[in-house]
Amino acid sequence: MYNHLELMSIQAGVLYIHDHAGRITTINEPTNQPAPRFFWGQTVAGRIVRFRSDVPNRLVHDILQFMDQGDSTEQLANVIRTLEKDREIRGLWMGPAFIFHETAKDYTGATLVTEDNKYCLEPGFPTLLSELKFRGPCFMVTENNMAVSVCFSARSSDKAAEAGVETLKDYRGKGYAMRVTSLWAQAIRRSRRIPLYSTSWDNYSSLSIAKRLRLHLYGTDISIH
């Protein structure tokens, strides 16, 4: 069983592609979008920090010094001020990181997406359909042969996978997200990997899923672009 700090390190490896120096380069998705300039994963056991490959070494040095001074709020403010010396901050993302318990509740009523039924994704989730080979396993709840709720691997590594959950607006509040997410997590465990789940603090529907599935909070993610 991994401790919280090890889980955060594993998550960083799921979220981003790293170069030989341990810097992050791109988001671990088929689109190869640039990684954030700075990633901070905080746990009760310590923190994991990653810098994008183009962040100057002098800024890296300054930020690492700031992160040992003051409380977390002061540290974050210092990080932001330091990064702004190089270029304008374009976005900040913050939220909790969870892991599924081994004994997560067993929901039923969702279907594994296969070659034979993937057409059900076309009406509501065409982008997911086009990227399906990178997103498996994927589970769906269907109504009238149309996928209305899905859970897929938003990002993956050989050690873990991060859940991506979407439900069409007209079908929310029916518990469908619980079904697809629970079955996805079970499938990831069967593949001998760790199922992870993270979201932002202001995504209340996603936080509700984590609460209802009784996921275990192991840390907080901060990404600065």
Summarize the structure.
This protein has 225 residues and is of the alpha+beta class. It has seven helices and eleven strands.
Measured between the Cα atoms of the first and last residue, the distance is: 32 Å
> From the alpha-carbon coordinates, what is the Rg to the nearest angstrom?
18 Å
Our count of domains comes out at 2
Mean pLDDT across the residues is: 94
CATH topology of the largest domain: Aminopeptidase
- The tally of strands reads 11
Fourth-level CATH superfamily of the largest domain: Gcn5-related N-acetyltransferase (GNAT)
How does the overall form come out from the CA principal axes? elongated
Structure description:
There is one protein chain. By secondary structure, this protein is an alpha+beta fold. It has 2 domains: 4-99, no CATH class; 111-216, Gcn5-related N-acetyltransferase (GNAT) (Aminopeptidase, 3-Layer(aba) Sandwich). The protein contains 7 helices and 11 strands. It has helices spanning 4-15, 57-66, 72-86, 126-130, 132-135, 176-190, 204-212, and strands spanning 16-18, 24-27, 38-43, 46-51, 92-99, 111-112, 139-143, 146-156, 160-167, 194-198, 216-224. The strands form 2 sheets. The chain has a 9-stranded mixed β-sheet, sandwiched between helices. Strands 1-2 form a two-stranded antiparallel sheet. Helix 2 packs antiparallel against helix 3 (72-86). It starts with a helix and ends with a strand. The model has no long low-confidence stretch (mean pLDDT 94).
